[in-house]
Amino acid sequence: MTAVDSAATVDGTAPVPARRLRRFGPLIAAAALLVLAAVPLFLAPFATTTLSRILVFALFAVSLDLLVGITGLPSLGHAAYFGVGAYAAGLVSIHVTAQVPGPLLVGAGAGALAAGLTGWITVRSHGVFFLMLTLAIGETIEQLANTWESVTGGANGLTGIRSARFAGTPLVVAGYTYWYVLAVFALGFAIIWLVARSPFGAALRGIRDNEPRMRAVGYPTALYKYAAFVLAGGVAGMAGAALVAQQRLVTPADLGFLTAAFALLAVVIGGAGTLWGAGIGAALVIVVRDALGPSMGGHGTLLLGLVFVLVVYLLPRGAAGLRLPLGLPRVRSAVFKAPRGGPR
Amino acid sequence: MLVSVLNGFAIGFLLFVLAVGLSLVFGMMDVLNLAHGALFLGGAYVGAALAGSWDGFLAALGIAAAAGLAAGVVLSLLTEPLRRRSHLDQALLTLGIALVAGELLLIVFGDDPLSVAAPPGLDGSVVVLGVPYPTYRLALIAVGALLALVVYAVVERTTVGALVRATVADRDMVAAIGVDNRLVKVAVFAVGSLLATTAGVLGGPIYGARPGLDATVLILALVVVVIGGLGSVRGALAGSLLIGQVESVGRALLPNLASFALFGALALVLVVRPRGLFGARA
Amino acid sequence: MITDQTLTRRRLLRLFGAAATLPVVSACGSSVGGGSGAGGGGGGGGTVKVGLVIPQSGVYAALGTDMQRAWDLWLEQHGSKLGDRTVQTVVADEGETPQTGVPAVQKVLQSAQVDVVVGIVNSATALGVRDVLAEAKKLLVVSNAGAADVTGKSRTPYIWRTSFVNGQISAAMGTHLAQSGFREGVYAIAPDYAAGTEVIAAFTKAFEAGGGKVVGQAKPPFGKTSDYQPFLTGIRASGAKATFCFFSGSEAIAFVRQYAQFGLAGTIPLYGSGFLTEGSVLPQQGDAALNVQTTLHYSDQLDNPNNRKFVEAFRAKYGAAPSCFSVQTYDAGNVLDRALRTAKSLDGDALAAALGGIGTIDDSPRGLWSFDGQSPRQNLYLRKVERRGDTLVNAIVKDLGPQQSQPA
Fold this sequence. Notes:
The complex is a heterotrimer.
Chain A: H1 16-38, H2 45-70, H3 79-95, H4 102-122, H5 127-147, H6 149-152, E1 165-166, E2 169-170, H7 174-197, H8 199-209, H9 211-217, H10 221-247, H11 257-270, H12 275-295, H13 300-314, H14 328-331
Antiparallel strand pairs in A: 1-2
Helix pairs in contact in A: 2-7, 2-10, 2-11, 2-12, 3-4, 3-10, 4-10, 7-8, 7-10, 8-9, 8-10, 11-12, 12-13
Chain B: H1 2-29, H2 36-50, H3 54-79, H4 87-109, E1 125-128, E2 131-134, H5 135-157, H6 159-169, H7 171-176, H8 181-207, H9 213-228, H10 233-253, H11 255-272
Antiparallel strand pairs in B: 1-2
Helix pairs in contact in B: 1-5, 1-6, 1-8, 1-9, 1-10, 2-3, 2-4, 2-8, 2-9, 3-8, 5-6, 6-8, 9-10, 9-11, 10-11
Chain C: H1 2-26, E1 47-54, H2 61-77, E2 81-82, E3 85-93, H3 98-111, E4 116-119, H4 123-128, H5 130-136, E5 139-142, E6 159-161, H6 166-178, E7 186-189, H7 194-209, E8 214-218, H8 229-238, E9 242-245, H9 249-261, H10 264-267, E10 270-273, H11 281-285, E11 293-296, H12 305-318, H13 324-342, H14 348-356, E12 369-372, E13 375-388, E14 391-403
Parallel strand pairs in C: 1-3, 1-4, 4-5, 5-6, 7-8, 7-9, 9-10, 10-11
Antiparallel strand pairs in C: 2-3, 11-13, 12-13, 13-14
Helix pairs in contact in C: 2-13, 6-7, 13-14
C-alpha cells in the first residue's frame, strides 16, 4: 500500500465504505457544483479570481491524478502538457479566434498531441524511472518555451491574449470568467471521472496494482498506459486553455518543474486515486501559496513541504483516507500484497 | 578547445563527488534521494559564509562534511519506516524534505546570490596551453581525482566496500547471511550526503550559492547517475566525466543545443538501458 | 467502522466548506455587478491610495527593498502627500514571475481598490497586466521593467515608466564604443531571453551605425548557466578588442568573476549595460569588477546638488547607498506628485493626461529628464568601477548626453 495506490482490499474489489459512499456521491457532487456556481453572486472580485485560479489548478491536478493515482504512473513533468495547451490556446486566441470553444478545443488537442508524441517512450518505464524521464521531458519542453521566442514570446511569455468570448461577448468581468472556468472544470472532471468509472478505468487500476498479472491475463498494458497518458495530457491542455482565459498570460514558469511538483503535491495530499481529493489538494496549494504565503514572508512553500512530508508519512491515502485510528499499522499487515518494487 | 576539455574534467570530477552518493544510495536501496541537491546547496552556503582565507575554507569543508554526515543519517532514518511501502513514497518524502530544506536555506541565507571566494593562492590563474586558466579549477581536478581514487579504493578493495557492493547486487541475500544491512544503508547514506555537501563547498568558487541552485544540480546529478548506472562507482565516474565534457565542450560548440543534448541523452538511456551504462543489476 | 469512515469523509467535506466560509465572509461582495470589478476609487476626498507592487521574495527581493526604501523616503520628505492628497500605501509582493506578479496587481486593484499602481520589476509581469489595467482604467507607473514593448508595441495610455528602456542603455554604449577605437571588433554576449535579445539588438544597431563591427556573439542559456568557460574561450578565439555584455544578478557575479579568472580582464576590456555592476552584485564581484565600464542612467556618485541631497538622506535613513532602482521609484513619487496637482480626478485617464503635461523634471537625482512616449528621455552616464576607500563604486567617467527612450 502506498500513497500512490488507492484503497483496495485483498480480493481487489472496492472497499465497503466506498460502496456506501457512492450512494451519496452524486448528491454531494451536485451540491458542490451548485455552491461553486453561486459563488460569484456573493464574493468580491478578487476572491472570485482566486477561486478561478484554484479551479484551473484543480483540473490540472485531477488530470495528473488519472496518471498517478489510477494508472500508477508518477509524473513530474505533467506541467509540460498543461503549458503546451495554454500556449496553443493563447496563440489561437490572439491570431485566430477567442470564441468559445475554439481555444478550448485547440488547447485540449495540443496537450493530447504533445502527450502522444512523448508518451510512447515514457510508458515503457515505471516507478522512479518514469519519474525521472517525465522530469527530463518537462525540463526540455520548458527550455523550448524559453528559447523559441518567435512563437512563445520567450521568457516574457505570451501576453496580450484576448479574453474568451462567449457568443460574441468578451468575458471580462471576474464573475463571467469564473463561470467559464467552472464549466471547463466540470467538463474535464466529468470526462476523467467517467473514464475512471468505466471498465477501462478498472483495467488501469489493475495495471497500477499488478502489471505483469494484467499482461498475463491478456491486456495490452502498454497501449492502455499510453491511452491514459494521452487522455491526461488532453485534459491538462483543457486546464491550460482555462488558465489562458483567466490569467490572459502564459509564461515558461507555467510548464516548469515547480508547477509539476506542486501538482504532484496536491494529488498526494488530497489522496491519489480519488479525483476529488486532487481538487482539494489543489485548493490547499493555491491558498497556501497565494493567501498564506505573503503573510509568511513568501515562504508558503515551507508549509506545503511540511504538510507533504507529514501526509506521505501518516496518511498514505492522503486527506481522502483520513480515518481514526491512523492506518499505518494496517499498512504493514502481512495480509496485503507486497508493495511495488518488491519481488517481481 | 583543449581548454574546454580541461574544464570538462574539472566540472566532471566535481559532478562525481556530488553524484556518487546519489548513485550508491539509489543502487542500494532504490531510494531516489531528491534532497541531494539541497545538500549541495547547503554546503555552498556554508562555503559562502566562511570562505575567504585558508582557515575559513578548511573550516567550511569541515563543517559541511559534518553537517552532511548528520543529514545523511537523518535522511536514512526518515526513509526507513517507509521501506515496506513503495520506493516511490520514499522518493516523494525526499521531495518534500528538499522543498523544506530549500526554504529553510532561503530564510537563513536570504534571497541574494552569494559568491564564494577561492582560498588565497588558488584564486589566480596559471597559463595552461598558452591561455590563462583559473588555478582553483586545476586544484579541483586534483582533489576530485584524489577523492575518486579514495572512493574507488574503499568500495572495490575493502571489506566494507565489498559489503556495499553485495548489498547493491542482492540485499536480501546479504540479509540472509546475517549482516545487518540497515547499518550499511545508514553508512552509505551518511557518506554519500557528506560527499554532496563537500561538493557544494568545493564547487562554490565556480557555482556560487543561490536559491534554485539545488534544483539545477539535482537534475545534473540525476543525469549522471542514470547514464552512468545505478549503484556503480565506475558508472558514476564515467557518467560524470562524460557530462562534464558535454557541459564544457558541448556548450562551446553548440550552446543552445547543449541543454537539449543533456536531457535527450537522459531520455535515451532511460528507455534503452534503464540501469545505465555500468548498471549493477542486469 | 464503516459508519466511522463514511462520516469522516463527509465530515472532511463539511469542515472544508466551513473553513472556506471564513475568508468568504471577509470577501463578500459581488463579482457580477457592473464593470470589471475594480469598483469605486479607494481614497475619497483628499486621499490617494497607492498600490506598491514590488518583489519581496525571490531573486529580485533586493531590488524590491531598494524600491520600497526610496518610496518611503519620498513620502517622509513630503509629509506623506502626493500633490495635496494624503497617501495610503498598500504593498503587495510581485514575486519572481508573472504567476505571482499578475495576481498581486489584481489583488491591489480588486481587493485593496487602489487608485494608482507603482512598481513592477519583471518585464513579463508589466506586459501581462496591461489588459487588467486597461479594463480597470487605472494607472501604473512602472519603476523598473525595461522591455521596449511596455511602452512600444504593447503601449497603453495606462502604463507610464520612470525607469529606462533596455535598448536605450545599450545603444548609448554602442555609440560610445564606436567612437573609442574599438571599431575593428567587439564581442557581444547576453543571456538568451527577451531582455538580452533587446539589449544586443540595440547595441549592435548603434555600434554598426557608428562604423563598428561585431565580430562574434553568444547567448548563454538564461538562468541555467553558471560556468562561462566555453563562452570565454569563444571570446578569446574571436579576436575581439573589447567585450560588451548584459548580465544581472547571479549571472553578473559569475560572469565578471570568471572573466577575470580566465585572464581576459587585462587583455580584452569588459563593457556592459549598467546592471552588470549595480546594487548588491558589486560587493560580491570584488576586485574582479575593477575597471569594468558600464552605461546607466544613474550612479550614486553623480555630482549634482539633487543627488548629493538624495544620497545623503538615503544613507542617513538606511545606512546604505541608493541604486538606480531607488531613484526610479523616488522619481515615481515625484511625477505622481506633479500629476496630482493638475489632475482632475484619480482615474487612469485623468492621471495619464496629467502626466503627459508634466514637462521636464528638473529636480531628480539623475539629472534632467522628461517623458518621451511614456518612458524617460534621460542622460546616460559612462561609469567605471573604482575603489574608493574600502568600497567599490561606479565612478562617473563621462556624461554621454540625453538618449531618447526608444532608440531608432
